[in-house]
Amino acid sequence: MSTQSISTQREANMISAGDLVLLVTLDSKEFLVTVKPEQVLHTHRGRFQHDSLVGQTFGATVNSELGHPALMLAPSLHDLMRHIRRGTQVIYAKDAAYLVHRLGLHAGSTVIEAGTGSGALTMALAWAVAPTGRVYTYEVRSDTFELARKNLARVGLLQHVDMHCASIDEGFAQTGVDALFLDVREPWRYLAQVHAALRPGGQFACLLPTTNQVTDLLRSLDQSPFAGVAVEELLLRRYKPVPDRLRPEDEMIGHTGYLLFARAISSSIDTQQWLSRDRKRYRARQRAAVAIKAEEKRRAQEIADGGPKYPRLPLPG
């Protein structure tokens, strides 16, 4: 994949200087390299000369100076995210892929991300909206901001991203975007800023590690102009690719976070009418419980005042 033009390299199959190449050795060790003239990759299988990659086709093999082969593959988005240089915990690929799907992102979409981190999700967002869309990402920490910038530049996606090293307390510089994702500690503090940045009907998503955070955000969304609220969690199980003994791997990727989704609606709409069915049912049960308790209190007082112990039942006919 060329670090200069991601769209061009997606169509090409010949390795050139400046391309990203994923080298995979026979023992499944992977090395993501940017091909540079006269550079050398040192591995446990020997040295690979970058010049020996130029002119080769993806999907072929190349030998190290010790004669050990390695596959030359065009890195996928999954590969890029796994080999990212990390300064913070990065989002899992299963969550990133589902976020892109649920937010409805495609070429030409505009999306805001708050909490850039190392830039893993930023890569996925830019990959989805390229070449005509735009990602606007915000990060308050200057060290992780710079790391994310380098990561995006390395894989050729920085050209699709506007980066802001700034707080979102005062809101976002953009308005009318298609989608917005928050990865911050207290997202309920920023719902007004989120709503102001989204187009009517725009998609909002948030990643939360704990149920307490989910609960606090849900309560705030009840009083904010959003509808279609949903909370979801993804579990990923891998299988051992052995045809005569197909079975799950011993470990699986379980809980990595709760994903919350909502849609921005007009501030003039009564949001209580657009609560989820489960939320309406819960409120109905709460009202019923309050009514029952009030009736029990009234009956107890009536009995204490000398009234009948049992209520009179209507006679048939």
Short description:
The chain has 317 residues and is of the alpha/beta class. Helix content is 29%, strand content 24%.
Helix content percent band: 25-40%
| Assembly category | single chain
Number of domains: 2
CATH class of the largest domain: Alpha Beta
Distance between the termini: 85 Å
Say which CATH homologous superfamily of the largest domain is assigned.
Vaccinia Virus protein VP39
Q: Give the radius of gyration.
A: 27 Å
Please, could you describe this protein's structure?
The structure is a single chain. With 317 residues, this protein is α/β, with parallel strands linked by helices. It has two domains: 6-75, Vcp-like ATPase, Chain A, domain 2, CATH 3.10.330.20; 79-277, Rossmann fold (3-Layer(aba) Sandwich). The chain has eight helices and 15 strands. The protein has a seven-stranded mixed β-sheet, with helices on both faces. α5 links the parallel β8 (134-138) and β9 (161-164). α3 (93-102) runs parallel beside α4. The longest helix is centred in the last third of the chain and has 28 residues, at 277-304. The mean pLDDT is 92.
